[in-house]
Design brief:
The protein is of the alpha+beta class. The chain has helices at residues 2-27, 74-86, 125-131, and strands at residues 35-40, 48-52, 58-61, 65-68, 95-101, 104-109, 115-118, 139-150, 153-159, 170-175.
Length: 178
């Protein structure tokens, strides 16, 4: 009886996590450095486990050519591929597009291991600092800036430890004055 209840609990938990990931992918805008997976049901020559978006946020797809995915969601890319494949190639293509690897964020300044780290959905600045080995002795938790892409422009803003990190962010932790 207990095993059955535990199985049901884990099944509900896994379904909830899958739904959360799907909703995160529906809102996430693709850009340069993201890796996506494309599956065209019944068409192994048109299915790819990993496609990395180039510096312009595009990728090449058989029969269609160059696809601009920059600023689009995985769902929008799916719709684009589906409509292009329907235009003279496949009668009823069933396409899925998902993000395999998000582009990195970068952290520098007063952290023990500055550098680029893979983004994870739901990442906050305090967890990003932990990924970078923690703060140095001279770090200030009040003097943190994030430079991020907003509407095609790089914008600098002050941040706190609770600030959500986005893919492609550049985080700088300044020294505190003692």
């Amino acid at each position: 009886m207990r095993i059955h209840v535990l199985r049901q609990f884990f099944l509900v938990l896994l379904l909830g996590l899958a739904a959360f990931q799907a909703s995160a992918n529906d809102q996430y805008q693709l850009s340069s450095g993201d890796v996506i997976k494309i599956n065209v049901y019944g068409e192994p020559d048109l299915s790819f486990d990993e496609i990395r978006l180039n510096d312009a946020g595009t990728f090449s797809f058989p029969f269609i050519g160059e696809i601009d995915a920059s600023g689009k969601t995985a769902g929008q890319v799916r719709q684009l591929i589906t409509s292009k494949l329907q235009d003279g190639y496949l009668v009823d293509p069933r396409v899925s597009v998902s993000v395999v690897t998000y582009r990195s964020f970068y952290i520098s300044g007063e952290v023990k291991e500055p550098g680029g780290y893979p983004y994870q959905p739901g990442l906050t600045l305090d967890r990003a600092i932990a990924l970078a080995g923690g703060l140095t002795e001279r770090a200030s938790t009040n003097r943190i800036t994030i430079v991020r892409n907003e509407g095609g422009n790089r914008v600098s803003q002050d941040a706190s430890l609770e600030t959500k990190v986005q893919p492609g962010d550049t985080i700088t932790i300044d020294q505190g004055f003692f």
